[in-house]
């Protein structure tokens, strides 16, 4: 079920992010984790926990801006999207840079950020 924006007369807060909100897995670190633990499944589990923690912290930083609508140039993992939707934020993904620039021009008080 999609989240709805507030009625048009009430106004809303827009946050535009250039890029994606994702945890970058560097292959050499993943291999190192596997070597240290000597158990490939334990290394994968550790990376998954780190990824969830990273997304949780990223979502907290986004929520500090108190947006009603978040527009991302890239994508975000499903768990991060779920956290934002629970907080009542509408998310639009995979918007081209040209579309973000148009949104900035159309909204007088909006600003595009490379990071939060």
Description:
The chain has 116 residues and is an alpha/beta fold. The protein has a single domain (14-113), classed as GroEL (3-Layer(bba) Sandwich). It is 47% helix and 11% strand. It contains 4 helices and 4 strands, in the order βααβαβαβ. The protein has helices spanning 27-37, 40-64, 78-86, 97-106; strands at 14-17, 69-72, 90-92, 112-113. Strands 3-2-1-4 form a 4-stranded parallel beta sheet. α3 (78-86) links the parallel β2 (69-72) and β3. The protein starts with 13 loop residues before the first strand and ends with a strand.
Any descriptors?
alpha/beta, GroEL, 4 helices
Q: Count every beta strand, where a strand is a DSSP E run of 2 or more residues.
A: 4
CATH domain class name: Alpha Beta
Q: In what order do the strands lie side by side in the largest sheet?
A: 3-2-1-4
List the uncertain runs.
27-37
What is the CA-based Rg, rounded? 17 Å
Q: What portion of residues belong to β-strands? A: 5-15%
pLDDT averaged residue by residue: 76
- Count of alpha and pi helical runs: 4
Helicity range: 40-55%
Question: Any idea how many domains?
Answer: 1
Q: Characterize the biggest β-sheet.
A: 4 strands, parallel
According to CATH, the homologous superfamily is: GroEL
The ordered H/E elements are EHHEHEHE
Q: What is the rounded distance between the termini?
A: 27 Å
Pairing-aware structural class of the strands and helices?
alpha/beta
CATH fold assignment: GroEL
Identify the overall geometry.
globular
CATH architecture tag: 3-Layer(bba) Sandwich
How is the quaternary structure best described? Answer: single chain
